[in-house]
Specification:
227 residues, alpha/beta, Rossmann fold, 6-stranded parallel sheet, 47% helix, hydrolase activity, acting on acid halide bonds, in C-halide compounds, PGP-like_dom2, hydrolase, HAD-like_sf, S-2-haloacid_dehalogenase
Length: 227
């Protein structure tokens, strides 16, 4: 059952995959491992060990974990580990991803309608700024927020509460927009509203409540919120 929603006062967007297209990085990682499952293995390890950092209280920034996960993925795939130069290039590409085609138009519609827009990403601040600049979408956001400030990765509830606090609104007045089921589930558990952007291959977590909004693109979400 979907959680009913009041009009949100702040919209908080995840970056990776929600706004940014990971396809170029997926191709590059798969090529580095010579394996069509390379990206999926690596990205899963990255998310898993970000949660390990949170649960153990042994924090490393997202880029550091991403680098370590490349070596771990090589072991699990029984592949040659990427060289230091290859790892550097892959992380550089991670920081320079394009936006999905629908993103700028959707964000522009929401901004014009008076919604306050924020980011909340697991990416470290330096990477986040590079990602926003490369994608050409920094201008739409009142503030760009990284979990690095609180040293707790999403889906820890404090990460979502941090975003709501910085926006100056209550969690229930905050809408988290994400393309990952775990991120939607985390936001809902923290008392936020949530919107799921159904990027290809991304499912909702079936054991969590349904979000108030579901849309295939940011422009479709904008139509729902403005309707």
């Amino acid at each position: 059952m979907a959680v009913s929603a009041v009009r949100p006062q702040a919209l908080v967007f995840d970056l990776n995959e929600t706004l940014l297209d990971l396809a170029p990085l997926r191709q590059a990682v798969n090529k580095a491992f010579d394996n069509p499952g390379g990206f999926r293995q690596w990205f899963g390890l990255l998310l898993q060990h970000a949660q390990t950092a949170t649960l153990t209280g042994n924090y490393f920034n997202f880029s550091t974990i991403a680098d370590a996960a490349l070596e771990m993925a090589a072991t699990m795939l029984e592949a040659r580990p990427p060289s230091a130069e290859q790892r550097h290039e892959l992380l550089h590409q991670f920081a320079h991803l394009p936006a999905h085609p629908d993103v700028a138009a959707g964000l522009g519609q929401l901004q014009t309608a008076g919604f306050r827009l924020f980011t909340l990403t697991n990416s470290a601040p330096t990477m986040m700024r590079q990602q926003l600049a490369t994608a050409g979408i920094a201008e739409y956001f009142e503030q760009a927020l990284s979990v690095d400030a609180g040293r707790l990765y999403k889906p820890h509830p404090d990460a979502y509460h941090y975003a709501a606090k910085l926006a100056g609104v209550e969690p229930a007045q905050t809408l988290m927009v994400a393309a990952h089921g775990w991120d939607v589930a985390g936001a809902l558990a923290a008392g936020l509203q949530a919107a799921f952007i159904a990027r290809p291959g991304q499912p909702l977590y079936p054991l969590a409540p349904l979000p108030a909004y579901q849309a295939p693109t940011i422009t479709d979400l904008a139509r729902q919120l403005l309707g």
